[in-house]
Each structure stands twice: as C-alpha cells, then as structure tokens.
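Class prep. Sample record?

___
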Amino acid sequence: MSEATLTSKGQITIPVDIRRALSISPKDRLTFTPMPDGTVVLRAKTKSLQTLKGMLKPTSGTAVSISDMSMGSA
C-alpha cells in the first residue's frame, strides 16, 4: 500500500509504484471520482480521442444522407 501527504498548497506527490502502475508521467491528466462509500477512484486520462479511431466496426446497413435524417420525417 502506498501513502502520500497533502501539502499546505493542496498538492500531493503520487508514489512511484502508483505512477508506474498507471503508466503516467509528468503533464498527464488525472481524474478523481468520489464514491458514495467515501472512497475515491483515481483514473489516468492517458488516451486521446485519436486512439479511439477504428475501434468500432462499420455497420453493414444502408447509408442515410443528412437531409434524410431531418427531424420529424417518417
């Protein structure tokens, strides 16, 4: 188990074993999500939108033009 201390400026140093486990480095973004039971989930935001490209397979349906997608048309 790793431990860190909060400074008077509200800063912490993330222990090296945690940084390695999350594969984070300086300037990486982190999110802190408080849970109802009082725990906090720490997540590294290391993926960009570009890394998602190609993850979904195209559907084999019929293509629909934007003009055919107008609201209220049946």
